[in-house]
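Hi all, long-time lurker, first post. I run a small reading group and we've been trying to get comfortable going from sequence to structure in the token notation. Rather than ask abstract questions, I figured I'd post a concrete chain and ask someone more experienced to write out its structure so we can walk through it together at our next meeting. Sequence below, copied exactly:
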Amino acid sequence: MGIHYDYKSTKGNKLMEKQAKREKKLAEKKAKRLAKEGPKKEGEKTPKLDPNKPISLDFLTNPNKE
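-- Answer (accepted) --
Happy to help. Here is the structure in token form:
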């Protein structure tokens, strides 16, 4: 038997360690990405088009004119 004798008995532990390592790595990547992006700005919204208002040529050529 030798080297493979304890494979089945330690398989579950090794899988849990691998999963924990993978989750830790993903959490670190996410934290790094969020730190790089900075805080999210919720006040920054694009103006929505009114479905009842027709789109004019003036709106298409100069959308910032209000």
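A couple of things your group might point at:
The mean pLDDT is 81.
Helices lie at 7-37, 57-61.
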